[in-house]
């Protein structure tokens, strides 16, 4: 099974993200598949293949993790893209305040996950909330107003840390929560 560990946000925060990104979505709707707000999360660790034993070990690692390292709020302050703003295959909201605390928590969690046999991720961790994925190869131009620092400034309240199973189908990904620790 495909699993991931993620930070979830309060419904009020999700509603604010929808409101603040409405104009962006409207301007790019035909070129991107937009993430449903019920699936808004920030992935801390992706596990592409796991069995039941590893899943249970992940739950233990989450229970032992230092939740006190997490910020109460995470600030999203700009639009970003993977692999970059020129190619724009994936659009996301980038983090600012709270990022260092989130990275400290992730490092603590990674150490606990290594005890389960998982290898520490060598890639640079870029905390982000995915908004949309490009659905065609068309050239996409994002209006300058969406790239300005003043476009977005949201403090999102962290609600829980959760372990999810991800199932892929033709409509996209379906997530099923397997375990969670509430933060509020």
From TrEMBL:
Q: Where is this motif: HXTX 1?
A: 41-44
Under Pfam families, the record lists: 2_5_RNA_ligase2
Quote the EC number.
3.1.4.58
UniProt entry tagged with the keyword Hydrolase: yes
The answer to keyword Hydrolase applying to this record is: yes
EC class: hydrolase
* Molecular function via GO: 2',3'-cyclic-nucleotide 3'-phosphodiesterase activity; ligase activity; RNA 2',3'-cyclic 3'-phosphodiesterase activity
Q: Which InterPro entries match?
A: Cyclic_Pdiesterase (IPR009097), RNA_CPDase (IPR004175)
Q: Which UniProt keywords apply?
A: Hydrolase, Ligase
Ranges in coiled-coil conformation: none
Q: Which domain of life is it from?
A: Bacteria
Q: Where is this motif: HXTX 2?
A: 128-131
Q: Which reaction is catalysed here?
A: a 3'-end 2',3'-cyclophospho-ribonucleotide-RNA + H2O = a 3'-end 2'-phospho-ribonucleotide-RNA + H(+)
Which residue positions are annotated as catalytic?
Answer: 41, 128
User: Hey, which family's this protein in?
Assistant: Belongs to the 2H phosphoesterase superfamily. ThpR family.
Entry function: Hydrolyzes RNA 2',3'-cyclic phosphodiester to an RNA 2'-phosphomonoester.
Q: What is this protein called?
A: RNA 2',3'-cyclic phosphodiesterase
| Classification lineage | Bacteria, Bacillati, Bacillota, Clostridia, Halanaerobiales
């Amino acid at each position: 099974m495909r699993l991931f560990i993620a930070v979830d946000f309060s419904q009020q925060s999700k509603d604010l993200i929808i409101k603040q990104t409405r104009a962006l979505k409207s301007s790019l709707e035909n070129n991107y598949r937009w993430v449903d707000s019920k699936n808004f999360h920030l992935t801390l660790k992706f596990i592409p293949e796991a069995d039941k034993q590893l899943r249970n070990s992940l739950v233990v690692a989450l229970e032992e993790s230092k939740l006190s390292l997490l910020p109460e709020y995470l600030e999203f302050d700009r639009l970003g893209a993977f692999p970059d703003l020129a190619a724009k295959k994936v659009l996301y909201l980038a983090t600012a305040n709270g990022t260092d605390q989130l990275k400290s928590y992730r490092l603590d969690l990674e150490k606990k996950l290594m005890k389960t046999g998982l290898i520490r991720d060598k890639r640079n961790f870029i905390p982000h909330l995915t908004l949309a994925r490009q659905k065609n190869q068309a050239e996409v131009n994002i209006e300058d107003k969406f790239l300005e620092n003043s476009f977005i400034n949201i403090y999102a309240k962290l609600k829980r840390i959760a372990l999810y199973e991800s199932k892929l189908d033709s409509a996209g990904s379906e997530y099923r929560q397997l375990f969670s620790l509430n933060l509020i």
